[in-house]
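Hey team,

Filing this mostly as a record. A colleague (T.K.) asked me to run one chain through the structure pipeline before their review meeting, and I want the input and output archived in the tracker in case anyone asks later how it was produced. No errors, nothing strange. Just documentation.

Input sequence:
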Amino acid sequence: MQSFSHAHFDHINHLQFLDPEIPVYAGVGTKLFMECMEETGFSCNYGNHAFNLFRTGDKLKVGDLTVEPIHVDHSIPAAYGFIIETSAGNVVYTGDLRRHGPRSDLTEDFIQKAKAADPVAMICEGTRMARTEKHKNISEPDVKKHAKQVIGNTDKIVFASRYSRDIDRFNSFYAAAKKANRKLVITPKAAYLLTKLQDDRHLSVPDPLKDSNILVYYKRKKSGNHDDKDYFLWERTFMDKMVTHDYVHKNQKHLVMDLDFYQFTELIDIKPESGSHFIHSMSEPFSEEDIEDQVMHNWLEHFKLEFHQMHASGHMNKENLCDMIDTINPRILFPIHTENQMLFKNYYANTQLIQSAKEYRLV
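Output structure:
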């Protein structure tokens, strides 16, 4: 079987190489994200697979195994951990998770159920297991608060860059823009995703086709005149909400606008006022030699935009990870999704260091 914990590329992209005969299990929301990626992406094709969809509370029978998906909070909705009932005892898989997001209660649910399962083993993510934390550990409520301050204290346009599937971050900027009586300008791809997610009754996101606080930005393409035929069929859905560089230029103080790395050229036509703001709501660069970061700052300096860094990670820091491991107390600990397996070993003698393509047995 193949079961997905959530719809980030590092967890799902291998599906395109998977034999269609192998059963695939995914959360209802995860499948919606994957469909959106295929329908709007240029090269995203996961192939034909029979999906078995689940939600928290379901129990999946897969051969001799029983798999229980349990919701967790992460930087994408519909993220799960799993408790797997085996003949050797229960195995817990954390998926990717955090305790500092807006739905930390989901993660706490998972931790308590994992503890009650008295697992013989736990497969544990360790993205932020590091001797020294390089980045600030701020929460999603902190991001929302800071965004409101930046947006509410200026009469100039505010641009924001965020991960496209981070719906919590979208909601933070949406709320901040709305509080400041500004419209939020998003891309057609973002609008399409929000429309797609209307099909999941468990998610609370605005409908871009109906919400008067949302506008959709269209770049000039082949004709240079925003002709309908310049755009894919899925993009044309939102043309009644269309705004262009000219509208944004004339209404700067009334707008908050999504602006990712590949849209910086739009600044040439938008012509933002000097002293406008740019919120970088993504991970900080890994090194001072990060070329993409240098290019971004070149654009910002050219247009004299004020830079703000505000991002809440989708992963627990070392202290929260250790607290979770202590609480669940597995007999064997398998660290994955980490660059620091040995650090787990330093803290927990029951850590099993893992190697690629090697089989490990519980008994």
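Quick notes for T.K.: The chain has two domains: 2-131+314-347, 140-309. The first strand starts at residue 2 and ends at 3.
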